[in-house]
Specification:
The complex is a heterodimer of chains A (113) and B (115). With 113 residues, chain A is mainly beta. Chain A is built from no helices and 12 strands. In chain A, the strands form 3 sheets. In chain A, strands 2, 5, 6, 10, 11 and 12 form a 6-stranded mixed sheet that branches. Chain A has a 4-stranded antiparallel sheet with strand order 3-9-8-7, with no helix packed on it. A two-stranded antiparallel sheet of chain A has the order 1-4. The radius of gyration of chain A is 13 Å and the shape is globular. Chain B has 115 residues and is an all-beta fold. Chain B is globular, with a radius of gyration of 13 Å. The chains are: A mainly beta (113), B mainly beta (115). Chains A and B meet through strand 5, strand 6 and strand 11 of A and strand 4, strand 5, strand 8 and strand 9 of B.
Chain lengths: 113, 115
């Protein structure tokens, strides 16, 4: 079946550092890929998405590129802020919606001032 | 605009009792999803509705769990004879049409605690 693997952390960085959170996946066909974020005390929010190979999703300074050859969708940001502290979830959808999203375990990111 | 609304936000109940969780999706969203978020299991997909129909119920953890959706809108997730392992945050999401590249929008969840 489908699966998503991501580093669980916690990942602790200083403000303005470069961020990479790795995400790799296993899926049949050509899934759509997503990053969701959960800020403290809040619900899951879509951060960015990519629906086909080589697509780059971007939002709020975050980027991720759909790499079919390496089955990866790594999340990057050039300069993190304290307000980026949250749990980040990589997810995929390959069943036309009928199978729901398959999530990774989530990466807890802590940004220190 | 209004997002996905879930109620109650918190529910504490005794083992063996039945509970009913409610989800009100974004207006116009025909697809609705239930997930469970727990420390040990992460985010698990439970069930999906397209309109009022749930094509596959195999993701529900046991036969104590059931879900329905009426009028293509509100959905309820019912857990009968609750057990301590049912303690988790139950999340509902909705999207347009249930197609692959449409993002799902999540509610804030119901935190269920079984004593």
């Amino acid at each position: 079946g489908d699966s998503v693997t991501q580093m669980e952390g916690p990942v602790t960085l200083s403000e303005e550092a470069f961020l990479t959170i790795n995400c790799t996946y296993t899926a049949t066909g050509y899934p759509s890929l997503f990053w969701y974020v959960q800020y403290p005390g809040e619900g899951l929010q879509l951060l960015l998405k990519a629906t086909k190979a080589d697509d780059k999703g971007s939002n709020k300074g975050f980027e991720a590129t759909y790499r079919k050859e390496t089955t990866s969708f790594h999340l990057e940001k050039g300069s993190v802020q304290v307000s980026d502290s949250a749990v980040y979830f990589c997810a995929l959808s390959s069943g036309g919606g009928a199978d729901g999203l398959t999530f990774g375990k989530g990466t807890h990111l802590i940004i220190q001032p | 605009g209004a997002g996905v609304s879930q109620s109650p936000s918190n529910k504490v109940t005794e083992k063996g009792k039945d509970v009913e969780l409610r989800c009100d999706p974004i207006s116009g969203h025909t697809a609705l999803y239930w997930y469970r978020q727990s420390l040990g299991q992460g985010l698990e997909f439970l069930i999906y509705f397209q309109g009022n129909s749930a094509p596959d119920k195999s993701g529900l953890p046991s036969d104590r769990f059931s879900a329905e959706r009426t009028g293509g809108s509100v959905s309820t997730l019912t857990i009968q004879r609750t057990q301590q392992e049912d303690s988790a945050v139950y999340l509902c999401a909705s999207s347009y049409g249930g197609v692959t590249n449409q993002p799902q929008h999540f509610g804030d969840g119901t935190r269920l605690s079984i004593l």
